Amino acid sequence: MKAGAVETLEPGIRRILAPNPSPMTGPGTNSYLIGAGGGLLLVDPGPEDASHRDALLAALMPGEHIAAIVVTHAHLDHSGGVAEMRRLTGAPVLAFGAAGEARSPLMQHLVQAGLTGGGEGIDTGFRPDRRLRDGEFLNGPWGEVEILHCPGHMAEHLCLGFGGVLFSGDHAMGWSTSLVSPPDGDMGAFMASLKRLMAREWRLMLPAHGQAVRPVLARLEELYRHRQMREAQICAALAEGPATAAELARRLYTDTPEALLPAATRNILAHLIDLLERNQIHTPLPVTAGSPFQRS
Description:
There is one protein chain. By secondary structure, the chain is an alpha/beta fold. 30% of the residues lie in helices and 20% in strands. It has 8 helices and 14 strands. The protein has helices spanning 50-58, 76-79, 82-89, 105-112, 187-198, 216-238, 245-252, 261-277; strands spanning 6-10, 13-17, 30-34, 39-43, 65-70, 93-95, 130-131, 137-140, 143-149, 158-162, 165-169, 204-207, 281-282, 294-295.
């Protein structure tokens, strides 16, 4: 799909691709318009980019307007375009919260002890006009959208349900696994959110990056098994002796390009913190990106 083009996926769902391809975003960020005629719901305005903003507005049919904006999470490739879209449309911006607001007590403790993020483009200035609650239904001219708080990729991450369609944000994609980078990412929460989504029946998954996914359950189960496999690899490696996240990433991500090893290291660190919380491994405190971990 070409950036800026409008693709009608099914009645009431349009996708517009932002021009921000990269190894982390795939072909770019998908923005979605839900509804047809009258007020529409915009899901993820995407990055701050004039051409993408113009494409979103050009996607509106006569008589349509953007009535509300939902941001799945506060990464700049999703929320960077919020301010201008809010100004141009007057639509309220809805999200679970600002970056860092929903961190678990463990992640808050690790931050206070010195753990820092990996520089994933967090939008520290993002503030929604209204905070959404897990399980609420967002009703409007577009229909009924279910709000699902699915922490993991970020603590405030939302997925949306709409008539059997799962808008999965960055939590689950078809072309890649998701980055889980502490303290904003949380592997234990990520796995719990995957299990929650796996317990539902979805006929289609629309991620924030990449193409539509079906069958949905098969892909969610594949992602879950992949994380279980990575955890088993980490435990096996630590059985041979202590290692840092970076050392484990180089040992386990053997086919990963050098430029992507920092992201792989953050995923490994997320697994290590989850294993630490479950008392399967230990490390001298405070936990940092360079901490050596070993089996308990």
